[in-house]
Specification:
- This protein is 53% helix and 0% strand.
- By secondary structure, it is an all-alpha fold.
- Among the domains are: 58 residues, no CATH class; 94 residues, no CATH class; 35 residues, no CATH class.
- The chain starts with a helix and ends with a helix.
Amino acid sequence: MRQVILDVRILADHKKSKIQPFLSLETTSESPNQAVKLPVLHLDPFDGDMAEWLAFKTTFLKYHVNMGDHEKYLQLLRKEPLMIAKSFSQDREPLKLVMEELDLRYGDTKEVKRHLRKRSEAYHKKSDAWQQQRELVDEIRCTYTQIKGMDSGYDGKAICEMILEKFPAYTQKAVLEKLGGEFTDVMTLLTTLNSVIKLNVRIANGIGDLNNKHNRFWRPGRDSHQSRYSGKTKSSQRGQEYGSDDHDRKPAMRSQFGQYNRDKCLFCEDNNKPENCMKVTDLAHRNQKKK
């Protein structure tokens, strides 16, 4: 019986020695010599853009409440908001007063919606390049998402037409073919625009899937490895290399033999073609005749 109790104690001590390192890791944060490092959330400074005020205010109050010091708060402001914040004295809750003043000036929902609509109407493409069109879609989507969150009525065919007119005619045509000519949902239009532009960006970069039937460069039986810019496949190039693919070769040009009467040989004046002449076969004599 004593031996059994002794074995149980030894086993318990052995398990305790295995668990102890993990317990020490969990309790290291309670050590007075080690400071707990919390992740610092980056917050872009606010420069007076009404569209960014709500996000700035929410993020600051949620994650930077420990930055209640007036001087630290000034580091997050630029331009006009910074001038407003500096106009308040620091003797009685300056942070609260500054937040109220900025919220009154930049947090008016009606003004923000008007500002966002004006911005969305002012968007325009910098060029017809696919990458520029892609950036334009991202900008419109970001602005529209903000407006949609404040105004559920900001939708409809008129808005879709206004957005679609900002893109080149060939992009509009591809989108209309996909949507069937009818569209009333802005997010659906933006998603379709993004898919069309994304496909053409891949094609322009030379990594498009040429086996995809939805690709406008696709042709039945086309070799996916061939270059889109040369009219020859790899098989025809190999044939020309080994002289076995004559159908891709161009016929002899007239300039090879000069201006001559096709009914007479240039070298012997018989009624046969010069390339079939059997009388003058030496290259030096042929060159002399051509001169």
